[in-house]
Amino acid sequence: MKEGCAYETASGHSYGPFGELVNESGSYSTMNTYKFSTKPQDEETGYYYYGFRYYDTSNGRWLNRDPIEEIGGTNIYVFVRNEPTFNIDILGMHCKDCPGIHKSCLAKNVQRFLKCMTQAMLVERQIIQQARSAYNSSIGVARSLMNKVKSNCERLYRGNQSDIDSCKSSAQTAFDATTKALKQVFDAAAAAAAVKRAVHEGSCRADKALFDAACDADKAICDSGYGKDDKGCPCK
User: Fold this and answer.
1) Is residue 99 within 8 Å of 232, Cβ to Cβ?
2) Domain that holds residue 18
3) What is the DSSP string of 100-168?
4) Are 73 and 150 members of one domain?
5) Which of 56, 82, 108 is the endpoint of a domain?
6) Is the entire prediction scored with pTM above 0.85?
7) How does residue 64 score in pLDDT terms, banded at 50, 70 and 90?
């Protein structure tokens, strides 16, 4: 660069993850037709041509079916499995690393499963906490009532210790019976919470088995009827 000379960007573009145009600058930015992913953009439609099909950045989807059909995934219009920050598709029919995709698919299922199981545990814990709070509150009310009755016993049977003791004993017996009943209610709530957790966990396991089967099916489709490159990727 010579002293006193000034340079400017002829054409600069910024894009979102799915290729949607965020900003452009430079005197030749509108003249440059090769933009996102180095692909030519149709001037009228704004679609990008990848050699085998057109891509719509506004919707993040291909306009045409995948030329390699389900070998690229069960969704034949999805753009790089909806993960453009990690995957690329050079021609619109990218050959996939089936073992790697399968492993990633199963890993996501594990994360989903653990999240589901954690949610089941939290639901049980919340029910038990609510039941325990109600139990403690009810016990507090019952104890306060018992103490009030015992205090009334002394005023009601003043000077007659035998009657006072009998009155207080009756109050204590009533309190003990109430405590026992409340404990049974709490135990029933805890048991119901455990059943709800077991049902939830069963649903988690069933969902994981279903999602794992979907991963296996995708891999089977990916592997079937195609040769493989050195990465184990099926290609026509």
Assistant:
1) yes
2) 12-82
3) HHHHHHHHHHHHHHHHHHHHHHHHHHHHHHHHHHHHHHHHHHHHHHHHHHHHHHHHHTTT-HHHHHHHH
4) no
5) 82
6) no
7) confident
> 7 falls in which pLDDT band (50, 70, 90)?
low
Element (H, E) at 173: helix 161-223
Same domain, 51 and 168: no
Closest CA to 88 of 58, 55, 63, 111: 55
Mean pLDDT of the chain, nearest integer: 82
178 is a domain residue = yes
Give the number of domains in the chain. 2
Structure tokens at 236: 């026509």
- Judge contact between 11 and 26, C-beta under 8 A: yes
pLDDT for the residue 71: 59
pLDDT tens across 95-130, in order?
Answer: 556 777 788 889 999 999 999 999 999 999 999 999
Same domain as 198, residue 105: yes
Say whether both 34 and 108 belong to one domain. Answer: no
Q: Under DSSP, is residue 189 helix (H, G, I), strand (E, B) or coil?
A: helix
What average pLDDT does the segment 42-70 reach? 81
Tokens 């340079």, located at residue: 7
223 and 156 together in one domain: yes
Considering the domain architecture, whether residues 41 and 155 belong to the same structural domain is answered as no
